[in-house]
Amino acid sequence: MIAHVFVDAENIPPYVTFKVVGHFGREHTITKVDIIGKEETLAHKYRNLDETIYRIQNCFYGKNSADTWLCLEMVRAIIDEPNLELIIIISSDKDFLPAIKFAVDFDKKIIFVSDGASHRRLIEQLQRLNLPLAAIELKDFNLSFDPQLERLSKFFPKLTEGMKRFFMSNAHKLRFILVRRGEELFEIPFVDGMGSYYFGRLCRELNILEGRLKNFIEQNFLKLKWGRVYFMTEEELAEPRPAERLKEYFTEHAADVRKILIKHGEKVSDLDFVDGMPFEFFAYMLKANDIAGDSLAARKIAKKSLLAVRDDKVFLLTEDELEQAYYNGLDEVDKYFYDHAAEAQQIFIKHNDKLWEVPFVNGMPFAIFGKYLRQKKIIGKSASPFNTAAKSLLAVRDDKVFLMTEDELDTLQDPPDSVGEYLDTNAAGVRKISIQHNGQPFEVPFVDGMPLETFHKLLLERKIIGKKASITKVALKNSLAVRDKKVFIREEIGQ
Fold first, then answer.
1. Is 229 helix (H, G, I), strand (E, B) or coil?
2. Which of 17, 215, 235, 461 has its Cβ near the most Cβ atoms within 10 Å?
3. What is the sign of the dihedral through the CA atoms of 280, 286, 289 and 292?
4. Same domain, yes or no: 138 and 10
5. 3 state SS of 114
């Protein structure tokens, strides 16, 4: 086709002009190239051109003078050049609609070359003017004259601006590869060494990512290294794939394959296993089943699943190892009963008028005894295990708990029904002592060695303590000693 090119030098650099003229000059016969702009915008690269083709036109002054001049030259060319078939406009402006309409009315074909930013608005304006879009071809000079970039532009409708900028800035390294999703193949743009974040984002924007990103990368003969995605080398491609090697291993050891349960978080998986299988295969198996992402996580999961990793192999635990694993999982109380299983016996514990049957070791640490009662919720966090022991016919000596001896049982006396009865019976031994509670002093009658329960009733009747207060703690804070369910003045028992 016979073509005339119009260049808006106000916003188009010379290299774009020459690239576009060179491209269309191979397809059409360009008779004239008008380069229009004010003198200061006409770069030196527009000097010394072939004057039979190129014509430099200085539009002198004015904000829109170049656009106006270009429209006038288009109209002049349409009228004065009867053989003209094609008009090529190179500009990033969109102020040529009147001239374009004039050209279309004269059956001229239009190619509008710009940076692509104004195409959508231009199309809307052309539709308002009822101009046939088939007569006007829009080209982006950033893409249309580079085969790779033109191929990339097909993906742009699905990509965000961030992904477009990434590929445009890496255009010199741009490749196109095929990836598989299930049974389907998809062509995607790719830059060798691109970050896994960008690769994952690309696959999601193109809606082709299936499953975990790491698995998707491996399935498509790519590799992930230091957070970047690369092509595999020829040597790496020649090696059997991990999935193929795992399948071969299970085939070779078919007679030894068994099912085991692997637990990770709340998920329990039933997987094939060979006792003594290479850790590499075990780790890949967990990865392929979305259980563990790396070897460190695989080791932790093996340990939690009662497996041992020795010499880069994975084994079922031996009986001794299972026993040790069980022991390591016990808390302090359970470990004590485990270590003293031969000495343990069952006894009844009384608390709040309820009976519990519990294991007991004669002479067990008082701290272990208290922790056990709290673990089993026999007593509350603030309750005293000392009182519970006393009520259960147990004696606390040297921070240990013992079954009471016959002599200790014989010394137990049933407390009188009332405090007054007890004080009357023991009138000769009654003395006045001061009891401090909640910062207030109280004077009360006291008999050295009086039953703990009678002392408790005495303080309750005089409203010195409340029902929930620990009588043992009150006694200890007031320099009184509690022994064998009786209360003594410390100085008189040598404490």
1. strand
2. 17
3. negative
4. yes
5. strand
